[in-house]
Amino acid sequence: MNLRQNNPTDYDLVKQYIDGNQECIDKLINRHKDRVYTYIYLIVKNHQLTEDIFQDTFIKVIRSLRLGKYQDNGKFLAWVLRIAHNLIIDHFRREKQSKTFSKDDYELDIFNSNKFCEGNCEDDLIRDQIHDDIRELVKELPADQREVVILRHYKGLSFKDIAEETDVSINTALGRMRYALINMRKIMEERNMSLTFH
Question: Is-contact 186 142, C-beta < 8 A?
Fold first, then answer.
């Protein structure tokens, strides 16, 4: 077995773990924990809940590996994110009211990207207010629409990647983005808000 000792791939580590090397699961978790944690947090917006879902995700990963349910297709991380995604959806189904989530520590500028500020963004106050307004709008979207907006504008993923990560078709991902924008515009009209990026 010619496993790459210095920099083993995810496949190598999975294989060794299934063959009985317990250390390999720790290496896999350490390798991907930041990405998985961030993915969960961007959607649920609550540190305690993120911790819980993060732990549940890797418990399920370990259980699935032991039961031989993982078919390697070179996308271990995508598989882990899909498990996390399904656990998030399960949580939202149980908790119909998303009002239980704390909004205080959600300080990520989802749209803080140069493509929204080409040219003249000298007026930092206006720009910051716009970003605050957008954050508030995104928070009010249904979970599946919010997720697509975050993956698209915060993580910069293509709709193809979003479709893979959320386990839906590209058309569904595009549809969710379209509805998200419609909903954001509707809320803006109701509140007489004006967002100007120039």
Answer: no
